[in-house]
Design brief:
Helix content: 25-40%
Oligomer: single chain
Number of helices: 11
Number of strands: 10
CATH topology: TIM Barrel
CATH superfamily: NADP-dependent oxidoreductase domain
Protein name: NADP-dependent oxidoreductase domain-containing protein
InterPro entries: AKR2_Oxidoreductase (IPR053135), NAD(P)_OxRdtase_dom_sf (IPR036812), NADP_OxRdtase_dom (IPR023210)
Radius of gyration: 18 Å
Pfam families: Aldo_ket_red
Amino acid sequence: MSPLLPPPGAPRLGLGLAALGRPGYINLGHGQDVGADKDVEALRARAWEVLDAAWSAGLRYFDAARSYGRAEEFLGGWLKARGHEATVGSKWGYTYTADWRTDAETHEVKDHRLATLERQWPETLAALGRRPEIYLIHSATLETGVLKDERVLARLAELAAGGVRVGLSTSGPKQADTLSKALAARVDGVNPFSVVQATWNLLEPSAGEALAEAHAAGWGVVVKEAVANGRLTSRAEVPPALAHLCAEQDITPDAVALAAALAQPWADMVLSGATTVEQLQSNLASLRLTLNLEALGNLAQPPERYWGERAGLAWT
């Protein structure tokens, strides 16, 4: 069985730790959610609280990255302490540089060279205390040249041959182009990649066709940012059609947004990015929704506008 697929009875909803492993993130209201106490132990306790709630709700897929502060450490410690078996995904290619500050000038630095991969893979093993089932290039783009770097591809092929499912996450208005390039990658005639994690949501669905192609090719597909970093939650002024549906059915925008992603036939797993147990509970309502997506109409923004607005979100 693919490690992306949940065990019988488990939902296709997973938990991403981007907002749980560090004191600053770009989700709307993140600083308010974390609260005044932002030291390491306070955030560890918060992460474990949300992880416990996710586990109790049946979630069995957890996603981290080297750049998510101490997310891998928090997740690995929680899994060991609780004795849980779960599917874990992580990512390499960004280095966390904020030094646990929310006002840092730079929070993370991207570098897709082989040296970064060779440094971060053992760091991930140490932090998690185990090998992740899924290991992704973090925010691969055509501009970094990582998908043409033969040494990086060869090293990832070695990991794949050892049983790790390797792949890439995508970001930016050219997600589909990046994924098409990855689908064509070869090392000794074999594509080392078999997983993609991409942004797809009601505001930015442009990667949908490429994700369907990846799914048809046998790749695992994970959806991130389904609530658009809070822009599809009650913290934002949501599109009128979405607001009307929520009022009519007494549901929250985040649940609708996640349900829309879960409704995509190519989506193997959809990530919640909850920072609090209350947010997670609201997200979980998506599993009980049956949506008429046509009633929402087309909420999509031009990709360049969407990603431009995302780039302007404040770290709090």
